[in-house]
Amino acid sequence: MAEFLTDIETIRKRARQEIDKGPITDAYGADLERVLQVLNEALATEIVCTLRYKRHYYTASGLYSEPVAAEFLEHAAEEQEHADKLAQRIVQLGGEPDFDPDTLTKRSHAQYDASADLIDMIKEDLVAERIAIASYTEIAKWLGDGDPTTRRVFEDLLAQEEEHADDMRGLLERLPHDTKS
Questions:
Q1: Which long-range contacts (CB under 8 A, 24 or more apart) does 23-29 make?
Q2: Residue 1 to residue 123: CA distance in whole angstroms
Q3: pTM of the entire structure?
Q4: DSSP letters along 126-175, please?
């Protein structure tokens, strides 16, 4: 096991000297600028996912649309919560959350979708969830011990994205594939 911390007097002295750095101390082991860029990409992903789920909620139609639309609305709210958590972490790290609509879809890992068919909507949402799962898994591994707080944010988001993917898969399994009637 590694030796415990620097002596407490040195830690106290550094804390006072670098007070303007907020939560970023010498113990922070990640590339802060890259972490902020990755957080802003994830923020864009969550905003695009919120918008996609909202569109699907409002445009879902047909015999089976009511329970599916309810699921879309629930997921839209949760994706918005994810965006809020990411924006909060960006600010906490001294960055600025990028909400610029002109570049949103370029920065997002997932894509926006305007499908009209209920099954296509579910499939596109499942694809987007799978993209988020793959991205967030890679990000959490990349962060490792360099920024454990941001890693935990991504791990929490990842758990919910996996639930969303499971929900979408379940809808696909339960719905008849000809939902036009």
A1: 23/92, 23/93, 23/149, 24/93, 24/94, 28/146, 28/147, 29/145, 29/146, 29/147
A2: 48
A3: 0.90
A4: HHHHHHHHHHHHHHHHHHTTTSHHHHHHHHHHHHHHHHHHHHHHHHHHHS
Question: What single letter denotes the amino acid at residue 180?
Answer: K
Of 158, 83, 159, 175, which Cα lies nearest the Cα of 122? 175
How far is residue 27's CA from residue 24's CA, in Å, rounded to a whole number?
A: 8
Q: Is the dihedral of CA 42, 135, 130, 160 positive or negative?
A: negative
Angle made by CA atoms 41, 37, 5, in degrees to the nearest 5: 125
Res. 6: pLDDT tops 90: no
Q: Each residue of 21-78: pLDDT tens digit?
A: 888 877 789 999 999 999 999 999 999 999 999 999 999 999 999 999 999 999 999 9
**What is the dihedral sign for C-alpha 36, 42, 43, 48?**
positive
